[in-house]
Automatic annotation (TrEMBL):
Organism: Phototrophicus methaneseepsis
Residue ranges with Low complexity bias: 72-82
A Pfam family matched in the record: FHA
InterPro entries: Cell_Proc_Reg/RNA_Proc, FHA_dom, SMAD_FHA_dom_sf
Record domain FHA: where: 124-183
Entries under PANTHER family matching the protein: NUCLEAR INHIBITOR OF PROTEIN PHOSPHATASE-1
Protein name per UniProt: FHA domain-containing protein
Spans annotated as Disordered: 1-23, 72-94
CDD domains for this protein: FHA (cd00060)
Amino acid sequence: MLFRNDDSSIPDPLPNADDITRDVREHAAEALRMLQEYEAKQGSEGESGLIDNQTTYDLKEAAAQALRMKQQQTTIIQQPKPATLSEDTTEPSQKRSDLFSDAHILHLILAESEVYVVDPTGEMVIGRSDKVTDYAPDIDLTQYGAYRLGLSRRHALVRRGQNTLELVDLGSRNGTYINDQALEAEQPQRLHDGDRVRLGNLTFRVAFESRS
């Protein structure tokens, strides 16, 4: 059964969706500003409650994570950057395989070639965790700046079929896209090897890899 999200607290997508693959550390100041503005607003309105606590926690997590990554950057020798996901090198889906069998495993290739490995079974929710309510999706992209990039807690669903994989938007606030084509809520769309997926403003490529 599919459920719609109620994530009214998460930010809207950034104006330029092609810039989403920049590292989260570049936005430390922005995350801190969002937190300070939110806390100032809450203080002036005298509001409180679970939803406010969740939002404050998410902003603190995003700000702290961005600052940690920014600090780590100073210890890394700069290397030539690889091609980013913003470069439109995706071939038409009909030219790529949609076969996903028991011999395959799914790789989500994020910014700077970070890989999130998934062994799809049945239906798996993609989203971000919430420590306030102790919720964690099956595929948790929190560490990749999920809150700031507009992911819902239950954003989308990966469904394993008969030698296929499908992606389903779960009524997310900021949308789900395959190769820049928006998915209708709760309408499955078959994935192909090499597809570019965008959830809100977080982009990754899917790769059907052989099991070793």
